[in-house]
User: Fold these one by one.
Assistant:
Number 1:
Amino acid sequence: MKGEFVNLPLQNEENTVVYAGMYTDDASVKTVVIPEGMREIGENAFRGFENLTEVILPRSLERISASAFAGCNNLKRVAMEWGLLEIGDEAFSSCPSLLSVNMPDTVKHIGEGAFEGCASLSSLKLSESVYMIGAGAFAFCFNLTDVIIPSSCVLLEFNAFFSCFSLEAVKLSDNMGLIDESTFEGCRSLKIVDMPSRLKKIGRRAFRGCSSLGSVILPVGTEHIGYDAFVDCSSLRRIAMPKGLRELEDADVFAGCDSLSEISFGGSKEAFELLTRGEGIKIKRSDLTLAIPKINIMDLKDEI
């Protein structure tokens, strides 16, 4: 029955975990209230429940375990309370009806694939205490339009926002030294990326296929750009690279960047030649022609 609230039965007074099998998928029950005192939703506890549309979690809850709500096709709302510390691997993966996520600021860890495939997710507020976001955590969230990674986060693992087609703007944590492999690969609507001030490395394919990205300014401390990092960023017109850049892992790092006409380098001509192995930068366009962008050698003594 719509709007019905059901408390899960406790096996005994000391049990604080909702295990798989404690609750059954019931067509008459759309909303489930997890009772106060429960500290963990166990692995697969509600996996594949077709009738579940809403879950209300208690303040006592500390952990949502792996695949706890995975594949709940009609789940639209999850009310998370202050006190939740961890969202496990694939906890809400393949929940295509989930509309929004508002995490309390107590959450410290988001597991791999935690919200992967939540195709309707359009509103995301991350915890201000989260320090790690796992691989593929928000991959294939096709309706997500903007993301702010809080300053508490030091690691955003590979594929974290892979193929988020509607993602337009991202602000990354200043405490991130790495943009991992394929983090934003396939984010074809991405226009604005606020880079971390402490960035050291951009991983392989990090921005591959970000075809709406118009310009990139890399922070002073950036030292490494990985293989295919900006391949097929067809709208990229300008990129500014700091003098401290030590390695372009691949000569074709800008392949398919059909609009790239200007590269600014903060160091000297000699440093640029060393960086590009004396070959400069040539762009292999999508039509297989070659283009040579204008190189602005800034030869800065100090960068701020």
Number 2:
Amino acid sequence: MSTSCVNFTELRFTSDAALRRYLADVESIWTPEIMTLLGQHGLQRKSITRIWNHADQHKLGILWEYSSPKAFKECQKLIAKHILPHAHRYEMVTRALRGVPLVDWHHDGDGGFTKSGTGNAGADHSAILGDNQAGETH
């Protein structure tokens, strides 16, 4: 597996209008220059999704994939510097869930799936990303 760190961030907005305001500003905040910089530091993927199975709430999910724990930490610094100053404009609460890929299935195009990883169920993965620092941004 080429991705060694995954983060899923839930953004919960106070209203649909607040969510739409955020989406309208995404490209002016997450500029091509910022995305290129993050890519140079190991961000492999960022995907924004509308969470639809909580109909009475206004939520987005952001999937982040990084090449390494070091890449995750370096990108955290860049996001804190370039992106967090914009966050106060939106009525939202964020929750970040972080993980280390253990088993990954990819569709192989022939109707089947190729599996990477073994699950490593008995292993302790808590030390992979190090301490949960208070300054983490997503």
Number 3:
Amino acid sequence: MPLLITGAADAGLMELPWEMPLSTWPEERIAALPRGLSRHVVRFVRHGDGVLAVKETNPEIAHREFQMLRELERLDAPCVKAIAVVTGRQTAAGEPLSAALVTEHLAFSLPYRALFSTALRKGTLTRLIDALSVLVVRLHLAGFYWGDVSLSNALFRRDASEFSAYLVDAETGDMHERLTPGQRSYDLEIATTNIIGELLDLQESEDLDEGIDPIDIGTRLEARYDELWAALTFSETITKNVPFHVAERVRKLNELGFDLGEIDMQQTSDGTAIMLRPKVVDAGFHSRRLMRLTGLDVQENQARRLLNDLDEYRAVHTEGDDETFAAHEWLTHIFEPTIRAVPRDLRGKLEPAQVFHEVLDHRWYLAEASGADVPMPVATASYVKNVLPTKADEKAVLGRSIAEMTAELPALTKEHGTRYEARDPYANDNTHGWGGVPEPEPSEPPQVQRRSTRIPVSDRPQARVRDRAAEAADEELGTLDSPDE
């Protein structure tokens, strides 16, 4: 059977060494990224400008998971992007090899084990569980039964002061129009069992804080899930002031990061009240608002933090102006200069929106320690100098103490000023990604010479006659004025 690649229209996939078992692929092809636990052989592979995740499995599972991930992506569910399925693999000697599922590596994401050590704060684990519970709720709302909920089957990205979770393994999943309470309950039961087992393994290897109880954490997911599910789906009966209660319900859902698309309102049989039930609830309320105002595509908690800073900027600097105008001013005068201030060799540590969030946190720490407001350029310079280079550790402020950093503020203020300089139109703009735009050429832009196709006036016959008469008059005057005459 010849090699067959089904999926993305990327001819470059044919150049990968599919005739070799994935475990023996050459090192120059492999990207050194942290991997989670998996029952299959999984490798991160350099491909073009990006990184792919390749998993060996049987053809039926590969095709099924590919279709499942494509359907989840269509529903805008948090998951990795499916790229292709590779079948018909054979060694040079003609021996058959396993099929492969190819997905896109989720940038800036980490498996949960890469986040764990005894040096981590206790709250990190609860934030991971909270992120996983939001992921499960979103998948269940979309009608997806996971069948193997666990920390190992998800990836986590920093999302402001929280985490966001993404599904990475969908081979046990199944899509339905709507999940029954029994299906949801069984998914949560599996989740509790898997999470407790994973934490006990960490405890056995002494990679878990001694103060963490695996059973308490394992049962936390179900409690958080029930709380969020009730807020998104429960029906309530309203006897008076219906518009106020509807607006209040929408506001509470927005605060949770969800947007209420449709709602059912049904009058009770006796006509004395109205039953209210959310029908279509979509996640990403804040991220969609930020996208609409600025074009920035970030995660939900990051969007919430950026919007708070945008609203504060609007109140102080552009009071009374249109929201869209204020957003443009904030983007060009605050957000983009902060992002461009990060040196190129440090841009791979965190997402741009996460950098901005942490600069805001750092600014708050500096202002509290110094007892005075700290300008954004100064806070950015201090963060880039003292915090970002050591960002491998999970602490808010690393390295030197706040007192030492605060002592630098006068020098940093003198060096960087209190306001960002006007934006250079030729400067590289890395707002939507680090290093994706080539630097401008150092030479001056070429000058375009324009030539007219019209006939010059002097080339016309009458003009030539006038020109000759003028020349003769000049010669005659020159002869009269000559000193030799």
Number 4:
Amino acid sequence: MSFVWILNYLPIVMGLVWLVTANLLGMIPSRDNHWRRAYVLIALGVPLLGWITYAFGPWIGLAFLAAGASILRWPLIYLGRWLRARLPG
């Protein structure tokens, strides 16, 4: 009984594990300002976000997207600066 319940909510559980792991990795000092860890978290988080959105709908997916964006805010800020520099006008 409990195993079936876990399988139904496995994307949410994995998303929460990703969030906790990302927070713990952010607390550990790093020589490269956490960029290597951010790349790994992004590579794992994008498919996980798609799985969560597919399994539970767009609102839950948006909630996890907002949570992940709040953790990985500096890569998003640099992406915005990069895009702004390349847009004409």
